[in-house]
Amino acid sequence: MTLPLRIPSGIGSLLLALLLAGCQTGMRPVQGLNQQLNRLGDSQSPSLSGDWLALITSRAGSRPQVQLIDRRRNAPVPLPGLNRPDSLPISVAVDQQGERLALVRQRDDRSELVLHRRSLQASQIIPIEPAGVPQRVSLSADGRVLAVEVSRAGLWQVDLLELP
Amino acid sequence: MAIGLSGCAWVPFRRQPAAPAGLGLESRQQPALSGNGRLLASLVERGGRITVLLQERLTGRELPLRHLRNRQPHSAPSLSWNGRYLALLVQQGGRRQAVIEDRATGQQHPLWLPAGQEPQHLSLAPDGQSIALELINGGSRRLQVFSLANLLEPDRAPGLRESGGGPEQQP
């Protein structure tokens, strides 16, 4: 008995094309993780570190939110205390332990820089000094240094902070 | 003063101004730290073109990049643990292309994607063994992760070695 060949479409075609392209350059798609990412819908602002992938997802009809995926299980982990119904995440970064997440989010027409510690389920707003509008954040994999892009008086600058 | 969390105690953050990228005030965007925090990549304007700049974070000393001239505008820099690898997006013809520069060997690795897949942003894993690409396809943004284990040697923190299925601490 022969089974009908099912021609993939949409995401299937994308996966196949990426698989073929990847094989030509020595890079290979991480299949299980990519299937999980496809299920999460529109995604942006990736941050890979150790066993963790932090990202911002935006499903149709719901607010964008930060997700943290455990790459050993290809599954998101809960982030109690981080995503708020009154804020919009703009940029996220994670350290290699999956313990610290640095986040720029918009809340009440203001942008703020936040450091979240997962073990404490606590977020701390980091003041921008001198005042400015944070946009994009980077966290060193060791979790000790944070760099943030800040707009001040029409100029983009980079602030560096050593974290305790 | 800014304050932060350290265990259960509240202690101050230490602020450090980014080292100057040139003479006077200039715009600087899209910072990316190496895994150990020693190097900082960012985007500055050079000769009217957006160009990636690699510096030591503490001294501001600029480090050379061999293959990236004339491929501006650059965007989305990302560094491995020791900064051996710099991944970023460059202009290739009319398209944006992801590339990885190996600062140890001087090699450049272009990451080819199928036509229609436009990389928008990326993140290189600190060990250089995988990369996440944000791709625009038909108006939607998707993340896809690729293994680079067949392409790049690991760039790990000192004291880590390969053993069996993965890295572990040396005794």
Helix and strand layout, with pairings?
The complex is a heterodimer of chains A (164) and B (171).
Chain A: H1 11-25, E1 28-29, H2 31-39, E2 42-49, E3 52-58, E4 65-70, E5 75-77, E6 87-94, E7 100-107, E8 110-117, E9 122-126, E10 133-139, E11 145-152, E12 155-162
Antiparallel strand pairs in A: 2-3, 3-4, 4-5, 6-7, 7-8, 8-9, 10-11, 11-12
Chain B: E1 3-6, E2 9-12, E3 14-17, E4 29-33, E5 39-46, E6 49-56, E7 62-63, E8 75-79, E9 85-92, E10 95-102, E11 108-111, E12 118-124, E13 130-137, E14 140-147, E15 160-163, E16 166-169
Antiparallel strand pairs in B: 1-2, 4-5, 5-6, 6-7, 8-9, 9-10, 10-11, 12-13, 13-14, 15-16
Quick description:
The complex is a heterodimer of chains A (164) and B (171). Chain A has 164 residues and is mainly beta.
Describe the structure.
The complex is a heterodimer of chains A (164) and B (171). Chain A is mostly beta strands and 164 residues long. Chain A contains 2 helices and 12 strands, in the order αβαβββββββββββ. In chain A, the strands form 3 sheets. Chain A has a 4-stranded antiparallel β-sheet. Chain B is mainly beta and 171 residues long. Chain B has one domain: TolB, C-terminal domain (Neuraminidase). Chain B contains no helices and 16 strands. Chain B has strands spanning 3-6, 9-12, 14-17, 29-33, 39-46, 49-56, 62-63, 75-79, 85-92, 95-102, 108-111, 118-124, 130-137, 140-147, 160-163, 166-169. The termini of chain B are far apart. The model of chain B is unreliable at 1-11 and 162-171 (pLDDT under 50). Classes of the chains: A mainly beta (164), B mainly beta (171). Chains A and B meet through α1, β1, α2, β2 and β9 of A and β1, β3, β4, β11 and β12 of B. β1 (28-29) of chain A pairs antiparallel with β14 of chain B.
Termini gap of chain A:
66 Å
Number of strands of chain B: 16
The shape of chain B is globular
Strand element count of chain A: 12
Oligomeric state, counting identical vs distinct chains: heterodimer
CATH class of chain B: Mainly Beta
Main beta sheet strand tally, sense and closure of chain B: 4 strands, antiparallel
- Work out the strand percent of chain A: over 45%
Q: Rg of chain A, please?
A: 18 Å
- Can you tell me the overall shape of chain A? globular
